Amino acid sequence: MVRKTIAQSVYFSGNGDGYKFEQNMTLDINGRPNSFNAPVSNAECTKRVYRAKFGNGIDHVKVYYAAELDAIDSADRLIEFKTTMLREIKWLERLSLSHYLQAFFGGVPIIVYGHKKFQMNVKHYDNHIIDRVSRKDVSEIPLKARHQWNLSDRMNTMFDTLKTIKDMLPHDDKAILVRIRHGKLNEYIEEPVEDCNFVNDDFLDFFT
């Protein structure tokens, strides 16, 4: 569950600050606030499996995928946590698309951000001070980022990618590696099956 308030407006999030921010913003298994001094671990996580169908009006692709869950609020809405040192315009340019797609495919309506205090010549991963918390409604991100990217174009690219993968993998015992560079598809490479872990057939049958 998500905490309603944070006692400290400025706090040290420590190494692995993304995980520490999640811990500081959530309640423990008994519904009590986590201690700010408690050690943080990413050894355990909760995931949800989705069955989806993506189409372009002419063809469609059925997909199974899993998304990691950060938290659920008191209204049973999924919440994603992020930390950032970027100001809004830079966030729109650099991170808005990836954050939107991650939340969209995970069925997450709200992203909670821990804003790191800007420090001259200090990189994001060396900056552990968060002095402000805000939230973004995921549904509003495409409109705010309309000058940076077009949602329809990105969804068409995603469908074309999935369709290409489907056409290249007519059998379940094959695998390919999709390589993306500079935000664009670069190539599809056949992946040796001995290097892959395939989903158990019984697991897929359960969701069919």
From TrEMBL:
E.C. numbers: 3.6.1.-
GO terms, biological process: NAD-cap decapping; nuclear-transcribed mRNA catabolic process
Main location: nucleus
Keyword match Translocase: no
Keyword field: Hydrolase, Metal-binding, Nuclease, Nucleotide-binding, Nucleus, RNA-binding
Required co-factors: a divalent metal cation
Domain RAI1-like: 18-202
One GO CC term on file: cytosol
GO molecular function: metal ion binding; mRNA 5'-diphosphatase activity; nuclease activity; nucleotide binding; RNA binding
Localization per Swiss-Prot or TrEMBL: Nucleus
Biological role stated in the UniProt entry: Decapping enzyme for NAD-capped RNAs: specifically hydrolyzes the nicotinamide adenine dinucleotide (NAD) cap from a subset of RNAs by removing the entire NAD moiety from the 5'-end of an NAD-capped RNA.
Similarity field: Belongs to the DXO/Dom3Z family.
Protein name (Swiss-Prot/TrEMBL): Decapping nuclease
The organism of origin for this protein: Caenorhabditis japonica
Upper classification of the organism: Eukaryota, Metazoa, Ecdysozoa, Nematoda, Chromadorea
